[in-house]
Structures are given as structure tokens and as C-alpha cells.
Design a protein that fits this description.
Layout lengths: L1 H47 L3 H76 L1
Helix pairs in contact: 1-2
Length: 128
């Protein structure tokens, strides 16, 4: 009888130890579940945009978008100015060349005029 009682007590102790172990595991999993539910709730609020962090993220996203648009406008303006600067430099070279040719033509015309006036003066002096 004593052996039967000891056997039952040992089985009881083993079952109680197993139950305690399972109880601790259940409590740990409940705590983990509670944490996951809180995290899911926070993420859900963030996706809905109803918490402060989500509102801040939306504000920052809008500010980033405005800044990007401003940067793009500035870059476009810079590109346009560079293009105009390039055209002005190119046109400056072309106009310098054109003015140089016109100056040469003007000087040759002046010398031709002087030569014609000298010839006209010689013709007048020879006729009179």
C-alpha cells in the first residue's frame, strides 16, 4: 500500500510539475499575445493616421514633397540659366567674328574711298 501511495504521489508531483510548467508557458504566451495585440493596435492606428506619430509622418512626408518640388524648380531654373549662358557665350563668339569681319570690310571700304577720292582729285586736277 505504501508503494502505491508513493507511486500515486510521484505521479501527482510529476503531473503538478508538468501543469506548473504548462501554466508558466501559457502565461508567457498570454503576455506575448498581449504585446502583439498592443503592437498590432499601434500599427493599425498608425495606418489609419490617428496617432501622433502617424500625423507627424504625414506632415514630414508633405514637407519632403514640397521641398523636393522646390528643389526641382530650382534645378530647372539653374538648367535654363546654364543653357542661356551657353547660348550667350556662343552668340558672343559668333557676333565677335561677325563684327571683326564687318570692321575689316569697313576698313577696306575706307581705303577704297580714299583711293577713289585721290583718283577723283587727280582727274579734276588733270581736267582743269
Amino acid at each position: 500500500l505504501d508503494a502505491g501511495v508513493k507511486l500515486c504521489a510521484r505521479k501527482f508531483n510529476e503531473a503538478k510539475a508538468l501543469a506548473d510548467k504548462l501554466d508558466e508557458e501559457v502565461k508567457a504566451r498570454c503576455d506575448e499575445l498581449l504585446g502583439l495585440e498592443r503592437e498590432a493596435s499601434a500599427l493599425h492606428e498608425m495606418l489609419e493616421g490617428s496617432n501622433d506619430d502617424a500625423k507627424r509622418i504625414l506632415d514630414l512626408t508633405a514637407e519632403i514633397e514640397r521641398t523636393n518640388e522646390s528643389s526641382e524648380r530650382i534645378l530647372l531654373y539653374r538648367h535654363q540659366l546654364n543653357y542661356i549662358h551657353h547660348r550667350v557665350r556662343k552668340n558672343s563668339v559668333v557676333w565677335d567674328s561677325h563684327i571683326s569681319e564687318m570692321s575689316q570690310t569697313l576698313s577696306s571700304l575706307k581705303s577704297e574711298k580714299d583711293r577713289c577720292q585721290n583718283m577723283f582729285g587727280e582727274v579734276e586736277a588733270g581736267v582743269l
